[in-house]
Design goal:
The chain is of the alpha+beta class and 242 residues long. Helix content is 28%, strand content 16%. It has eight helices and ten strands.
């Protein structure tokens, strides 16, 4: 066998091996981009979710928004083209009472953004977290049009001072990741941590599939709502007091 043939076979074997890693259950290009090991792959036994208690969420408080910006290297929505993965919406009822609703990606069980993505850049992990792989996102923005929550942003300008664990890039779509890089290291999302630090405790994070988790017990005990429940997307973000 010639050196050329040997080199070609070695290249093909290594390429096939890499493809096998990328296509293994629970492993994605997004995981590889984050440097996560295959053994840290998401498990289908878990479904991560978030419960927002609007009775505790204060309209004047933006701790969750600021924490998200800091954690993910966002600029805080200072211009119309800036990404903002959490935004606060004030709702006023007929009696004039104001309640504050944090809105972010709802991490649907049946995400329409994934359905319309032509490249597979929008995808759902085994544990229910919906993400965008910027390495294969072509910036078509179909997912932005499909999302009923207006939760996705398009990056119009080059991104400087990126966080190593939160890859971003011009020409890509992005949204709340539930701080997946923290979850994979057994930490809670930055917004939840910041909300707890204020003493409001309006955000509760946990495993929706575990009936013994605090979030599951709360959802079983009190009335909660999914935004646009009529769409039957089975969102992982629930609201109490909406």
């Amino acid at each position: 066998m010639s050196e050329v043939d040997h080199g070609r076979r070695k290249f093909l074997w290594e390429s096939a091996a890499l493809a096998g890693i990328a296509l293994a259950p629970g492993i994605t290009l997004y995981d590889l981009a984050h440097g996560r090991r295959p053994e840290a792959a998401a498990s289908g036994k878990v479904r991560w979710g978030l419960l927002v208690d609007m009775n505790r969420c204060q309209p004047a408080c933006d701790a969750c928004v600021r924490a998200c910006d800091t954690e993910n290297g966002l600029s805080g929505g200072k211009t119309v083209t800036d990404s903002q993965w959490i935004r606060k919406i004030d709702l006023t009822d007929p009696r004039g009472s104001v309640r504050s609703l944090p809105m972010m990606c709802q991490h649907c069980a049946d995400p329409p953004c994934v359905d319309v993505c032509p490249t597979g850049a929008s995808f759902k992990r085994a544990d229910g977290i919906v993400l965008v792989d910027r390495h294969i996102c072509i910036g078509c923005r179909y997912c932005m049009m499909a999302c009923p929550y207006g939760a996705r942003s398009f990056v119009f300008e080059p991104v400087a001072n990126q966080k190593p664990e939160v890859p971003r890039g011009k020409g890509c779509v992005e949204s709340c990741t539930l701080c997946v890089h923290r979850i994979d290291r057994d930490r809670i999302p930055a917004c939840v941590e910041a909300c707890a630090a204020t003493g409001h405790a309006a955000l509760l994070f946990g495993d929706l599939n575990d009936p013994q988790s605090e979030i599951s017990k709360r959802i079983a005990a009190v009335a909660t709502t999914q935004v646009r429940a009529d769409l039957r997307l089975d969102t992982a973000v629930r609201y109490q007091g909406l």
